[in-house]
Amino acid sequence: MFVFKSNRYIYAQAFNDDTGTVLVSACTLEKAFKEKAKNAKNAAGCRDLGQVLAERLKEKKIDRIVFDRGTYPYHGRVKALAEALRKGGLGF
Known about the structure:
About 35% of the residues lie in helices and about 20% in strands. The chain is of the alpha+beta class.
């Protein structure tokens, strides 16, 4: 799982390193996310995004991931996303 965040939005992709294919992706710009969350800029919005990602990964029968936060420190929105993924039943 790779995470990219801008000042306004956050993007996350789960991909297979062996084949180089994207398995699941989600961002705060998607229609499914906007229906669920009111604000994409705060930690609560990232928790909602984590729930959406966890559901999509569970549909693909994926329960273990490697969380790559890139150069972003593990706090705030990135931490909220990671905790929501764990709460959704994913292990990393």
